Amino acid sequence: MPRFAANLSMMFTEHPFLDRFAAAAKAGFTAVEFLFPYDYPSEEIGKRLRDAGLTQALFNLPPGDWAAGEKGFAALPARFDDLKASLATALPYAQATGVGRVHLMAGIAQRSDAKAVEAFYKSVAYAAEFFAPHGLDVVLEPINPRNVPGYFLNDFHVARDLIRELKLPNLKLQFDIYHCQIIHGDVTMRLREMMDIIGHIQIASVPSRNEPDGEELNYPFLFAELDRLGYAGFVGCEYNPRGRTEDGLAWFDQYKGARP
Question: Is pLDDT of 260 > 80?
């Protein structure tokens, strides 16, 4: 049975951020993820997790100036020093939460730019090697161009090939089913082909990015497929609830309380 992690940046937004941990636990989740924790002290994030009895599944490394449209800088040649500083910023949060994986964002850049490609390889390798002694995986997520126009890593095949080429044991693929369906389709076959490098999965309905309970994708089939494939990681619920989060959790009822 999949282990679902509520995404606290998108779910339970009826509550202040630090109160969403308790709300997720009350709703039956045993794990959470979020985009960025950096507006709050790492010790407070860790305390909220422990108090709620939750596991931290994932969070993103600092992305730069998010409000100004930055989506990371791993593929930006002039921002390597910022990349290195971002890893040091994230480490105390990883230690306070006990998270096992962090998402490295590529940024807005053209993959036709050889310097951007070189910068991305360099940043990915540096981040994976930085976090390896701490027992942390680095995950790379292809993001569809409809949601983030111009994002450097917008192809699952590119991410797959890079991960297999670098052969770093703590470098994995973040397989967001929503993004995969929009970019490529044929989700089940891509899950089967890439399962050996997948470190985290995320879900949402397509095209609305709401609860995973309808529209283009048959999520009960996909959840069963993850079991058939032996996936033991977390499934992050990175979707926008149609209304109150708690009112849209009928899809989740049969999975409540799933643990390792």
Answer: no
Dump pLDDT digits (tens) for 28-83.
999 999 999 999 999 999 999 999 999 999 999 999 999 999 999 999 999 999 99
User: Half-sphere exposure of 180 toward its Cβ, with a 13 Å CA cutoff?
Assistant: 24
Residue pLDDT, tens place only, 126-140: 999 999 999 999 999
- Token digits for 184? 């490529």
Contacts of 138 by beta carbon, 8 Å cutoff, 6+ apart: 101, 102, 103, 104, 124, 127, 128, 131, 170, 171, 172
Distance (Å, rounded) from C-alpha 185 to C-alpha 73?
A: 27
Task: Map tokens 């998010």 to a residue.
Answer: 66
Distance set, CA 31 to CA 2, 57, 133 (Å): 11, 6, 24
Q: Look up tokens 């926008």; give the residue.
A: 240
51 CB-near residues (< 8 Å, 6+ apart):
21, 22
**pTM of full prediction above 0.85:** yes
User: What residues are labeled active site?
Assistant: 141, 238
In 76-149, beta strands by DSSP E: 101-103, 137-140
